[in-house]
Design brief:
239 residues, Beta Polymerase, domain 2, two-stranded antiparallel ribbon, five-stranded mixed β-sheet, alpha+beta
Length: 239
């Protein structure tokens, strides 16, 4: 245990990571520690048991669910920008959206939970992969009631299903919305557009009519932070 962890009663990142590894390592969980944060990757079949242990066990006491969100990893690690040869002014088409996600990738979608233990002054990120074709995980609403709307939001935006949720309806998009807008393969222009029809005296939905394009400003920065050759780098302290 480090000196800092000793002063805080063992509440540091290293102590938490060690406790998680001892308790959940045999259940196929993976403990990741980086940048002063701890992430616990949990197999879907063990989610409820692990979550309840994290909430109730004296070593953890993660009584509060701060946030829950979905993630689409289908474009993870892909660089969308190649700006070295771009103009420094105006607009350009700089994003390549031509890729097709692998539908059956078991790690395409994930649900990420951010937990807080007030008793131990600790935070933890928990990640569960949900699959690709029909992403689904167990609902944690029975453990943290606040998960109700969080899970509805993840369903609405990513299409992730939560087994056991009592009222899994869309939350942010409009009635009749087609698709899930935070998926990486969702078109940037959307699927439909709406307008008020004076003849029918109501709002009508129609297929989107604008041209699919990406026009975004390109900003080229030339300061020393972006120098690739260490020999050419000049720190501010050298000026």
């Amino acid at each position: 245990m480090s000196e800092q962890e000793s002063r805080t009663g063992g509440n540091g990142v290293g102590a938490l990571a060690s406790a998680l590894h001892r308790r959940f390592g045999t259940q196929g969980c993976e403990v990741l520690s980086a940048l002063g944060e701890v992430t616990l990757v949990v197999p879907g079949e063990h989610l409820l048991a692990v979550a309840q242990m994290l909430r109730d066990h004296q070593d953890f006491r993660f009584a509060e669910l701060i946030d829950l969100c979905g993630v689409d990893y289908s474009a993870y690690g892909r660089s969308e920008w190649a700006t070295e040869g771009a103009s420094t002014t105006g607009f350009g088409r700089g994003v390549d959206r031509s890729f097709e996600p692998t539908a059956d990738d078991p790690k395409r979608f994930a649900v990420v939970y951010h937990l807080l233990s007030v008793e131990h002054n600790r935070r933890l990120r928990m990640r569960v992969y949900a699959g690709g074709v029909a992403p689904m995980v167990d609902s944690v609403r029975a453990l943290w009631a606040v998960a109700d709307w969080y899970e509805r939001e993840a369903f609405d935006l990513f299409g992730i299903l939560f087994r056991g949720h009592p009222d899994l309806r869309r939350l942010l998009t409009d009635y009749g919305f087609v698709g899930h807008p935070f998926r990486k393969d969702f078109p940037l222009i959307g699927q439909v557009e709406m307008r008020y029809d004076p003849l029918q005296q109501r709002v009508v939905y129609e297929p989107v009519s604008i041209e699919p394009r990406t026009l975004v400003p390109r900003v080229i920065r030339s300061d020393s932070r972006y120098a690739r050759d260490p020999a050419t780098r000049t720190d501010a302290s050298d000026a």
